[in-house]
Amino acid sequence: MSSTFLVVPQWQGSGSSRAMRLVDGAEAVRHELPSGATRLIEVPLEAGDSEGTGILRFSAIRLVRERVQRELASLDDVAIIIGGDCGVEYAGVEHAARAGQVVLLWADAHADLNTPETSPSGAFHGMVLRSLIDEGVVAPENVLLVGVRDLDDAEAEFIERAGIAHVPASDVGAAIAARAAAVREAGGTPVLYAHVDLDVLDPGAFSGVGFPTPFGLTLDELTTAITDARASLELVGAGLTEFAPAALGSADLDPNPSADANAGDDLTTILRILGALRR
After folding, report:
1. Helix (H/G/I), strand (E/B), else coil: 50
2. How far apart are CA 146 and CA 176, in angstroms?
3. pTM (predicted TM-score)
4. What dihedral do alpha carbons 264, 243, 275, 266 form, nearest 10°?
């Protein structure tokens, strides 16, 4: 099945001092994609208001979600959402759930399992997976954490209580197949959604993120895990998020020239990941 890229340069869900660079990151990726298969989702310029939710800039996040939902409803093929922050993927997973019971590959340095009450930052990109679980979009037993290594105490407690699996990259294919079999045995139709936050990669392999975290995956480990997952279950949606390049640009508020030379290598890495998601 063919793929359409939805580029969503949302920064409002990020808690990073490099949040505005996510706009540049999304634009940089967009210029590398086939124009005929790419759509740009407009993101408001203003930060937005919490609207009493405890989530920073929630009004802007809600507006972007509605725009992504409308665009997804018009597609007949697989959508690959390009962030922006991780919050842009809520609509993607929600859309995938219309095709069946989502088995969710969550490749990320962070579990994103906080709530407004437990979040130390109030940033939605640290809450998106918990929101998907709490709102019934995905069942916790169908979430496979890969590369997660930086947890808040409340997140670690929730993982244990909810029985969420933390899977080595080399075991992803078998784990996806096992969850798909369990869903079928229960009478459901399993479908695969793959989430990739680029900080799942080791900082030595990828530098352009807001929260680089040591001891991450290699690029080969990540792309092999994606390929194994796709071999085990049909992919109906995916997302790639949190590219915050250090190269100077109109949205850059915190330049770091020492990382500028890595921008080209980072884009090459991103294209390899997208190739694994799209093929």
Report:
1. coil
2. 12
3. 0.94
4. 20
